[in-house]
Amino acid sequence: MFLPYLSREKAKLYANLWKLYLFRICINLYFIGPVYLAFYQDFAGLSFKYMMFAQAWYMLWAFLLEVPSGIIADSFGRKKTLILASIINCVAIFIYSLYPNFYLFLVAEFLWAVAFVLFSGTDDALAYDSLKQIGEAHRSVKVFSRMESFASFGVLIATPLGGILADAFGPKMVMLFMTIPYAFAFLIAISLKEAKIEEPICLQYYIHNFKYEFRLFKSNKILIALAFNLISIYIIIYPMIFLYQDILLVNGFSNTATGFVYAGWIMLSIILMNSFDIFELIFKSKKAFLTISGIVVAIMFFLLAFSNYPPLLVIALILGCAFGFARKPLLINYMNKHIPSHKRATLLSSIGMIENFFLVFITLLMGIFSESWLQPMLITLGILTLIFVYFSRVREEYLVD
User: How far, in Å, are 24, 109, 127, 208, 209 from residue 17 at the CA level?
Assistant: First the structure.
């Protein structure tokens, strides 16, 4: 849109917005996602267990680097941080494709964790600061929603395409193909206009803030209940991003099919995230979706444990994963209503760190038990999901719009 009243500098800041939309698409074109296991098996001869160990390693570093990454973005600059993250991503891909060695894969996963935490929140911060400098900070919610929509669009493109490319060229080439969107992300990052950072934050501030937020969180029973409901189910459903590949490949599905199943649950998740009001209208309760989604996730685990009928596996995965992953934005929305605005971003980041901490252990356990104890593990996950839903302390009055 042409805006003649903007100065040259403000026009560049305004251009940051559409550039960041494209940037979100590029960094979410994660072609290897639906064929990660095929890459480990075909390229390196490694089993599902090793892939999950690598993911636990990744989660550990994502947890440990969360705070330092914020300091880098605030002091080094958001534009430079995004440039650096794009470069590190490409280096990680090169290392992953270099030689089929598990320890090299761990180096690549470490670099991916570094890139992830550098990306995380940095583009949001640059978008907000750009809006603030041109006097349109009130549009931030709309801009952030669009950024999430473009990210989802990138995932929808990448998941079926990754499977198709894997069947055509092999999983190793799919990994290498990811350098293309990340190279575009690098070029976009270079073209961005750095927005002014009013008060760069030091390490002491982060440490002090973390202590304060932990006390704030601990004293708020509503936040504890909502966070427990979020984290308990999410750490159980998250590893399905990888486990579903093992389940489908063992049952004879092609790489292309696994990609379309992944895309299917992403599409359904988007639909559900825009239909929460329907559940409230039908069941006369805001808590209805939280309860129903937890039960659907549990049913998915039981069906996966006791059935090998391909259509039923697909239906269970799409419904279970879609309902499971759609819970997170709804719960975050409710948590936002109980967090002071000046502490919102950092407190949510702290909750994210707690989530990553537990994901390290659940991912490790799934790697250890999935190969020889898959059915008992799936049954256990289903039972745990029902227990968490039943003992949820979330009350209807906590769910404020």
Answer: 11, 30, 6, 32, 29
Q: Are 364 and 237 in contact (CB under 8 A)?
A: no
- The contacts of residue 386 (CB under 8 Å, 6+ apart) are 294, 295, 298
If asked whether residues 350 and 237 sit together in one domain, one would say: yes
The arithmetic mean of pLDDT across residues 323-345, rounded, is: 77
Single-letter amino acid, residue 298 = A
pLDDT tens, residue by residue, 10-63: 788 888 889 999 999 999 999 999 999 999 999 999 999 999 999 999 999 988
Whole-angstrom Cα distance, residue 31 to residue 164? Answer: 10
Q: pLDDT for 100-130, tens place per residue?
A: 999 999 999 999 999 988 887 788 778 877 8
Please say whether the dihedral angle defined by the alpha carbons of residues 355, 357, 358 and 362, taken in this order, is positive or negative. positive
Could you please report the per-residue DSSP string of 287-353? SHHHHHHHHHHHHHHHHHHH---HHHHHHHHHHHHHHHHHHHHHHHHHHHTTS-GGGHHHHHHHHHH
Rounded Cα distance between 241 and 247, Å, is 11
Distances (CA, A) of 342 to 160, 213, 270, 333, 345: 40, 11, 29, 16, 8
Distance CA 392, CA 232 (A): 10
Domain count, the chain: 2
Considering only CA atoms, which of 204, 61, 73, 55 is closest in space to residue 127?
73
Co-location of 191 and 238 in the same domain? no
Alpha helices in 170-251 (DSSP H): 171-177, 179-191, 203-218, 221-237, 240-250
Q: Are residues 197 and 212 in the same domain?
A: no
Q: Are 278 and 291 in contact (CB under 8 A)?
A: no
